[in-house]
Amino acid sequence: MTKTRAYRDGALLKEDFPMADVSDFLAEPDTAVWADLCEPSEADLAELAGELGLHRLAVEDAVQEHQRPKLDRYDGHAFLTVYAVRFDAASERTTTSELAVFITPRALVTVRKDDGFDIGAVTRRWDQATDLAKSGVPFLLHGLLDLIVDGHFDAVQALDDEVEKLEDMVFDERPDTAELQQRSFRSRKNLTALRRVVAPVPEVVGSLMRPDLKLADGTTRPYFEDVHDHARQAAEHAEALRERLTTVRETQLNLQSDRLNLIMKKVTGWAAVIAVPTAVTGFYGQNVAYPGNGTTIGFWVSTVVMLVLSVGLYVLFKKRDWL
Question: Where does this protein chiefly localize (predicted)?
Answer without folding.
Answer: membrane
